[in-house]
Automatic annotation (TrEMBL):
This is Acetyltransferase. The record marks D143 as: Increases basicity of active site His. InterPro entries: AcTrfase_PglD-like (IPR020019), Hexapep_transf_CS (IPR018357), Trans_hexapeptide_repeat (IPR050179), Trimer_LpxA-like_sf (IPR011004). The active site is at H142 (proton acceptor). CDD domains: LbH_AT_putative (cd03360). Gene3D superfamilies: 3.40.50.20, Hexapeptide repeat proteins. SUPFAM superfamilies: Trimeric LpxA-like enzymes. Signal peptide: none annotated.
Length: 214
């Protein structure tokens, strides 16, 4: 049975997610994108990769299609989910999107609303929370936990037993040593190497990574 899917936010991530959904549909015929919702009225009527921008995100409350939040930043996805919850949208409508070229290892779990793009690897017993986004080539190894709304950019590598907090952001090609904690809403800069815990809300950069303010 084919599930119609609506994407929320007419973003670059939406275009990447559209490609992933179409790859899933080509593989097994289970998903088809029916359109995009965005709160920018100037975008209404646009067509992104063949999918029309139908109207504001609040329309999701009046429809029954499965949903994927495609705002690029985790904080924006969190705010969108909270707003939709206030409109009575059932969380069961959120759909995980796992590109056929991603690898999900034994014992791993991907929560509803998460997006794993091509070549993402979860090795074993990895837990991925709701509305997490993992960009191409990210590698999450044994016993990692990525909490809701986190963003894992392209080429990120996590050692074993890493915990990434809610709405944290790991920049492109950054790496995190095994057993390290990344706090909620924290940011690890592009190409940084994190060897110790990154506190909540802070931004660290460099090799080894240090506070941007130090």
């Amino acid at each position: 049975m084919t599930e119609p899917v609506l994407l929320l936010a007419a973003s670059g991530l939406a275009r990447e997610t559209l490609a992933a959904i179409r790859a899933i549909d080509e593989r097994d015929g289970t998903s088809t994108p029916v359109g995009i919702l965005d709160d920018d009225e100037a975008r209404h009527g646009e067509v992104l990769l063949g999918s029309p921008v139908l109207g504001p995100t609040a329309m999701a409350a009046d429809l029954q299609d499965r949903l994927v939040l495609c705002a690029g930043r985790g904080a924006a996805r969190r705010a969108m989910a909270q707003r939709l919850d206030g409109l009575g949208v059932d969380p069961a409508r959120y759909r995980a999107v796992i590109h056929p070229a991603a690898s999900v290892g034994e014992g791993s779990h991907v929560a509803p609303g998460a997006v794993l793009l091509a070549e993402v690897v979860l090795t074993a017993d990895v837990q991925v929370g709701a509305h997490v986004v993992a960009m191409p080539g990210a590698v999450l190894t044994h016993d990692d936990v990525v909490e809701d709304y986190a963003t894992i950019c392209a080429g990120v590598v996590l050692g074993g037993s890493v915990r990434v907090g809610v709405a944290a952001y790991l920049g492109m090609c950054s790496s995190v040593r095994e057993g390290v904690r990344v706090g909620p809403d924290a940011v690890l800069g592009m190409g940084a190497t994190l060897l110790g815990d990154l506190p909540q809300g802070q931004t660290w950069v460099g090799v080894p990574a240090r506070s941007k303010e130090s």
